[in-house]
Each structure stands twice: as C-alpha cells, then as structure tokens.
C-alpha cells in the first residue's frame, strides 16, 4: 500500500485546455502567430512543469474555432474533441494548421457561443489535482447570446444559455450550486479587446485574467507564457 508520504510526492496532475480561437477575416494578420503558439504549447508547458518538479499525468487540448452565426452559420463553429497528448498531437496539429481566417460579417463575432461550448466541455474529473483552462483569442467584441439572427441558424447550439447572466451561472463561483465548472480547477484567460462582453466578464467572473488586445495589433506579439505560468503556478 502507498503511504501518505509517497502519495504526496507522486500526485497525478490532469490538465485540460480549451483554446477558443477567432478565425474571422480580421484575425488574418495574427492567426499565424496564434497557430504557432498553439502548436508549441504542450511542449512549453511540459518544460515549465518539469522545471518545477511536476509531471502532467494527463494533458488534453481542445480547439473551438469561431466566426459569426449571423454572418454564415455553416462554419460559425469548428471544433475538436478533447485530444490526449502526446498520442493525438498529430490530429491537433492538423486541425490548427487548416484553420483559415475568413468571414465574420459585422465587427462583433460569436465569441460568447464559443465560450459557452467551452464551459460545457467534457472536463476531466479524475486524478489527484486538476486544472481546467479556457483561453479566448479574439480581436473583436461579441454578439449577445441568442440574437434573433443567430438563433434562426440550424447550426446554433440549443444548449447555450439565454444570456450572459445565464452563462455566469454555468461558470459559477465559490460554493455555487449552478456551476458546471469545478471552481478550484477552472481558469479563464482572455486575449480580447477591452469591450463587451470581455470587460464585463473580467469584472464579474472569478478565476479570470484579461490581456487586452486591439484589432490588428494586440495579438501580434502574443506569447503563451502567461497561460503556461497560470497553469504551472496553480497546480
């Protein structure tokens, strides 16, 4: 039988990350940078964790690429399942490399729908310690949930909350009874403009970090060090 000392010294860490990536036309100048960072993310995370004497027992990544349901519903959301690393790294790389910045219509995009899908992802519930991280990459504000034009699309996910307050209820807070996220495990990292809804989310949601971006500028020098540090330092 494993004694307490051995157990504490061999904790199993599970890390799930969902990358929500705006792939509308305005993201073209910076999408390549996002792709490059995403493709090296797992290697950099393992390196940092190793430097802290910790080893990730189970690492899974999921990508939700979004555009605008009100502009063109057919490709408003493209997503993977959770992919286990390193076994599914090739599938992850293939999906990310094939992303193209097109469409989008008006300035706001369907970022809140992507965030809702991320919150309701099939998160890891086992192992000793868990970290569930959602990362949002966008240079645009977002439409409110359930806009009349969006909800008429046959591809619009019917499980999405009616409004931002409903989404907050799913995100939850300490001792929340309505949360679908595990409060101790969750983190939300926003690379997004200082605009609706990202400013409101930053002010009202817990476990959230915001790195403001400006269209065509802010994400151009994107580094994932902040995300990696958020994960490594909190495990």
Overview features:
235 residues, disordered N terminus, 20% strand, 7 strands, alpha/beta, seven-stranded mixed sheet
Concise overview:
With 235 residues, the chain is of the alpha/beta class.
Write down the secondary-structure element order: HEHEEEHHEHHEHEH
Mean residue pLDDT? 86
Distance between the termini: 25 Å
Number of DSSP helical runs: 8
Structural class: alpha/beta
pLDDT below 50 for ≥5 consecutive residues: which ranges? 1-8
**Strand segment tally:** 7
Can you tell me about this structure?
- By secondary structure, this protein is of the alpha/beta class.
- The protein has eight helices and seven strands, in the order H-E-H-E-E-E-H-H-E-H-H-E-H-E-H.
- 33% of the residues lie in helices and 20% in strands.
- Strands 1, 2, 3, 4, 5, 6 and 7 form a seven-stranded mixed β-sheet that branches.
- The two termini are 25 Å apart.
- The relative contact order is 0.19.
């Amino acid at each position: 039988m494993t004694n307490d000392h051995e157990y504490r010294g061999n904790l199993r860490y599970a890390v799930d990350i969902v990358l929500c990536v705006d792939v509308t036309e305005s993201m073209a100048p910076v999408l390549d940078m996002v792709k490059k960072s995403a493709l090296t993310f797992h290697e950099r995370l393992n390196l940092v964790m190793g430097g802290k004497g910790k080893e990730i027992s189970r690492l899974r990544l999921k990508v939700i690429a979004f555009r605008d349901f009100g502009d063109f519903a057919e490709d408003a959301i493209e997503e993977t399942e959770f992919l286990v690393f390193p076994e599914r790294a090739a599938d992850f790389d293939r999906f990310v490399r094939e992303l193209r910045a097109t469409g989008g219509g008006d300035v706001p995009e369907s970022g809140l729908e992507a965030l809702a899908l991320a919150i309701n992802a099939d998160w890891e519930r086992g192992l000793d310690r868990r970290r569930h991280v959602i990362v949002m990459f966008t240079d645009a504000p977002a439409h409110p949930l359930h806009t009349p034009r969006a909800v008429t699309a046959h591809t619009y996910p019917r499980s999405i909350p009616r409004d931002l307050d409903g989404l907050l209820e799913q995100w939850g807070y300490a001792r929340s009874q309505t949360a679908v996220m595990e409060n101790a495990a969750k983190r939300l990292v926003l690379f997004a403009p200082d605009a609706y809804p990202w400013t409101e989310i930053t002010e009202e949601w817990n476990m959230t970090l915001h790195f403001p971006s400006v269209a065509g500028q802010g994400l151009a020098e994107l580094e994932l060090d902040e995300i990696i540090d958020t994960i490594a330092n909190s495990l």
